[in-house]
Amino acid sequence: MIEIYYKNNDVRKYKSIDEVEYLPDNIFSVRFIDFLNSDLELISEKFDLDLTSFSKKEDIEISSHYIESPDQLSLNFTIPSYSSSNFFEEKDIYILIKNEIVFTFLSPDIENILNHLTQSIYNFKNTKIDTYHQLFVFQIGVISDYYADIVELISKKIRDLFKNILKSEQFKEKDLDYIAELRFNNLLIRESLSEFQRILLLLKKSFKKTDNAFIKISEELKDLTVIADYLQYNFSRLDDLHGNINSKIELEQNKIFKILTIITVCISLPTLIAGVYGMNFKYMPELDWGFGYPITLLILILSFIIPLIYFKRKKWF
């Protein structure tokens, strides 16, 4: 789907590129939602765009994610989004500026998330946007707010898990798996945030210090630095959680080993006595005793109970 925002505040939606009548002088912004790679060539011809950045999204060099030419600026980066499971998935965002028009390429789920965030935080209908630069930095601000939201979500999950772990006396393998999921999601956010920060630093240099866009991007970079600090706090909390669980697991194992040791000692003495009387010697005086059997049973019982009393006084259990 294609959404075109005109300078007269008119918004039109098109299902196919062929339906679009492209008049650059009247257009403010163009958004491509759920586009296909097979559409890129047609989009490039229709809107006179250089889309080489789409083929460089896997490159790690910042020069592949921030491309500035005399007539076009191209940004591409990924932001994390929850999949059907507890794991985040990386979703691509492409923003191009040409002929004073902001072109944005989004997946449907990211479009829905950013729209919902815009409606819940900003009074967008009453927000006055006069230039494409204002629209562009507004989109940058929404994305920064999205990072803040997902980091807060991860932080809340970690705090809730921490409370449950402190109260719990038994731990399951799924607890460690959940910590691994949170660590993976936190790592994805940090990588994505770092990429976004590098792009904004380069973008900041393209504006004059007196420009509102320069000031706005500088503010967003400060906010992103705070968000990055929270991400590092999350890693520290997860390390503490992992260490706490491992320590408690070791304590549980020590208790088990203590119990096994007590049982082994308590059984070994009766086993020793029974082993002695199980020997096939010809002359064993106790065999002729009238009370030999009950006395032996009593000794066996006492040899089991006495070590139990000893370990109980030592508070081993």
UniProtKB/TrEMBL annotation:
Bilayer topology annotation: Multi-pass membrane protein
Main location class: membrane
Chain segments annotated as transmembrane: 256-279, 291-311
Biological source species: Labilibaculum antarcticum
GO MF, one annotated term: cobalt ion transmembrane transporter activity
Domain of life: Bacteria
One cellular component (GO) term of this entry: plasma membrane
Catalytic activity: Mg(2+)(in) = Mg(2+)(out)
Protein's job: Mediates influx of magnesium ions. Alternates between open and closed states. Activated by low cytoplasmic Mg(2+) levels. Inactive when cytoplasmic Mg(2+) levels are high.
InterPro entries in the record: CorA_cytoplasmic_dom, CorA_TM1_TM2, MgTranspt_CorA/ZnTranspt_ZntB
Family: Belongs to the CorA metal ion transporter (MIT) (TC 1.A.35) family.
Swiss-Prot/TrEMBL keywords: Cell membrane, Ion transport, Magnesium, Membrane, Transmembrane, Transmembrane helix, Transport
Subcellular location: Cell membrane
Protein name per the record: Magnesium and cobalt transporter
